[in-house]
Design goal:
Helix content: over 70%
Number of helices: 26
Largest sheet: 2 strands, antiparallel
Shape: globular
Structural class: mainly alpha
Strand order of the largest sheet: 1-2
Order of helices and strands: HHHHHHHHHHHHHHHHHHHEEHHHHHHH
Radius of gyration: 26 Å
Strand content: under 5%
Number of strands: 2
Length: 665
């Protein structure tokens, strides 16, 4: 990093620290939590916009690849910010909270993916040069493969972008009190300012600033909680004690009679939903008749208006067709079954009630690990970062720095999960419903917490409490009783994580459409000014469409991200790897790999994911939809090899490019 940039970020960090001190003092003088949330939200967005303004440019080389002048440490920090998305910041600890050992597939898979980038992709793409992934595909294969590459880049990046915008809306709606849709629009304004004005140059230096904020925001709460609970400033040193505490608390709840009663009632509820599913369509008609009969009775007797309203709502939300009812009741059945299962601790691997379930858990873990590694290695917005370094050597160094900066957060995610589990077991479960902590009620209103008294004892059991994975990190400061300042700080960190990744994704999509499609296919004579205008219009259009899709709230953040990784792995990994290392890789094989990989992964996803009408009983070897990319990668590799061997050899120039890429710089 050049001296001027180093000085700038030194004073930037000092300024941010002073800003935090001022807000902490403001809270001690009566500043409300809402005001702190507003200040963090708008001050940080204004800060990113200011950095983007300072880095604005109208030079094409600066706009696309930051002038190829980003040193390794700065590129590593920017790549880490690009990588630590809302899924990592918000969702990772939540998955570990719920899945324990199996949740570590995300940590190891994403980390292992960077090893693949460092060894197999990043340096070779940097040596190739140019601006984008489709440009490499055109030089290595041909124009049709490059066009397919544009589709692949846009599809994988768009799904990932939707997840980031969803995270922005979630943070804004909870901590600022605005509507989810308005929160999405506020976040989009911050995203667009950086990428709109200066392209990759502005995005790079903004991401460096965002990383500094997000890592401080992520580590500060657990450091303070570790000092308060264990008198140790480094929480990693007390992980063993926390695991033992969780295991002891879970064992107590597992053997508690009231807990067992609640679980048995959830099993009975699941069986009831299964009977409704088995009796379709008659059960749907019967359900509708019961509701209408009860409504008619209450209206005739002028019953409680609240009861009438509740029944009206139930009737309106009742599925209209047997197929909709099957999917709806299946989801409710699975939710009840999940609450009926015995609680688990973090140290238990391959969780399941039967040997087959445990074997399926092991296979799904390995499949997800494989997909996340391949998806990481093929994510376009990450690979684009390697075009920004001055040399191949700096590209390799930046990967090492990226792993270091990412590890700071990933090693802290399990600690978040353990602190949350301890707080729930010691201060929430077993309490009267009249004495539930305020944070639980506030997150219930947002929809990230659910609870009920199914056994009617007036006491909250562990089985009766459901925490959404997306709420664990955001709620932990409140769970631990930390001041409102920490709540706002974590929200600012989550916002930085979502905005930094969204910046990179938006730029990747607009570059693919503007440079690889518009400029290289339709307007090769376009002026620099015209090309920049087209790119910026595409940026705006993609942002608006992605915001609209995010408002539909399809799934949790981590599952959306999992689909994005599966798409990137299926569409790009086989084509890039074989294109770099195999002289025989032919254009027809590349096209076959992309088409086959897409069909295999999406086909499995839609066939087995209930949100899209799929059936979980169709899952192969227990592999869940989030890991659908394993079928796409394997099918794509096989199709690429077979078609390339059957067809004619590539042109001599294409084969010589392989030799050039593999030759040391």
């Amino acid at each position: 990093m050049n001296p001027s940039a180093g000085r700038f970020y030194f004073f930037y960090f000092i300024g941010f620290a002073l800003f935090c001190v001022v807000l902490a003092l403001g809270e001690s003088f009566g500043m409300s939590a809402r005001a702190i949330g507003f200040t963090f939200l708008f001050a940080t967005i204004a800060l990113y916009a200011g950095v983007g303004m300072l880095a604005r440019t109208s030079d094409l080389l600066e706009f696309y690849v930051a002038g190829r002048g980003v040193p390794g440490i700065a590129n590593g920090m920017a790549t880490a910010a690009d990588w630590v998305s809302a899924a990592s910041f918000i969702g990772l600890a939540g998955i570990i909270y719920h899945q324990g050992f199996e949740g570590l597939a995300y940590v190891t898979g994403w980390t292992g993916g960077f090893v693949l980038v460092a060894l197999l992709l990043g340096p070779y793409l940097r040596k190739f040069g140019r601006f984008t992934i489709p440009e490499f595909l055109e030089a290595r294969y041909n124009g049709p493969v490059a066009l397919a590459g544009v589709v692949a880049v846009v599809l994988a990046s768009f799904v990932y972008l939707v997840a980031q915008i969803y995270g922005v809306g979630l943070i804004a709606s909870r901590f600022v009190g605005v509507d989810f849709g308005l929160g999405v629009l506020i976040g989009m304004a911050g995203i667009l300012v950086c990428s709109f004005l200066g392209g990759m140059r502005a995005v790079t230096w903004t991401q460096v600033s965002q990383y500094l904020i997000l890592i401080v925001a992520y580590l500060a709460p657990i450091v303070v909680l570790s000092i308060e609970r264990f008198e140790v400033p480094l929480p990693h040193l007390v992980m063993g004690k926390m695991v033992q505490t969780v295991a002891h608390g879970v064992a107590e709840r597992r053997d508690d009679p009231d807990e067992q009663l609640a679980r048995s009632l959830y099993r009975a509820r699941a069986e009831q939903y299964q009977r409704k599913i088995d009796d379709l369509p008659a059960s749907l008609l019967h359900e509708r008749e019961i509701l209408e009969r009860e409504l008619a009775r209450l209206r005739q007797e002028e019953g409680d208006p609240r009861a009438i309203y509740r029944l009206e709502h139930q009737r309106q939300s009742l599925p209209s067709t047997p197929e909709e009812a099957r999917g709806h009741w299946r989801r409710l059945r699975d939710a009840a079954l999940a609450q009926a299962r015995s609680p688990r601790d973090f140290s238990h691997a391959w969780y399941g009630d039967t040997p087959q379930e445990r074997q399926n858990a092991r296979i799904n873990f390995l499949a997800l690990l494989f997909v996340l590694m391949c998806g990481t290695a093929a994510l376009p917005h990450i690979l684009m970062r390697y075009y920004t370094t001055p040399t191949v050597s700096e590209a390799r160094k930046s990967t090492a720095w990226t792993l270091f900066f990412v590890a700071l957060l990933y090693l802290a995610a399990p600690i978040y999960a353990m602190f949350a589990k301890i707080e729930v077991l010691q201060h929430v479960v077993g309490r009267s419903f009249d004495e539930l902590p305020a944070w639980l009620v506030s997150w219930y209103r947002v929809g990230l917490v659910a609870f009920e008294d199914i056994n009617g004892d007036g006491i909250l059991q562990l089985a009766e409490l459901v925490l959404n994975p997306d709420g664990i990190v955001l709620a932990l400061p409140e769970m631990g009783g930390l001041p409102a300042f920490f709540v706002g700080l974590v929200a600012a960190g989550g916002l930085a994580a979502a905005l930094s990744t969204a910046d990179g994704l938006l730029l990747t999509i607009s570059n693919a459409l503007g440079h690889d499609l518009y400029y290289r296919r339709f307007a090769p004579e376009a002026s620099t000014q015209r090309l920049l205008i087209v790119n910026k219009m595409l940026l705006l259009s993609v942002a608006v469409i992605a915001a609209w899709v995010a408002m539909l709230r399809f799934d949790s953040i981590l599952l959306l991200v999992g689909l994005a990784f599966s798409l990137a792995a299926s569409l790009l990994f086989p084509t890039l790897i074989l294109g770099i290392f195999w002289r025989r890789a032919a254009p027809a094989g590349a096209l076959a790999a992309m088409v086959t990989g897409l069909m295999a992964s999406l086909g499995y996803y839609f066939l087995t994911h209930e949100s899209f009408g799929g059936r979980p009983d169709l899952q192969l070897f227990g592999i869940q939809p989030v890991a659908c990319g394993i079928f796409g990668v394997l099918a794509g590799l096989a199709a690429h090899v077979v078609v390339s061997l059957v067809g004619p050899e590539p042109e001599q120039g294409k084969q010589e490019l392989v030799d050039f890429l593999k030759r040391p710089s």
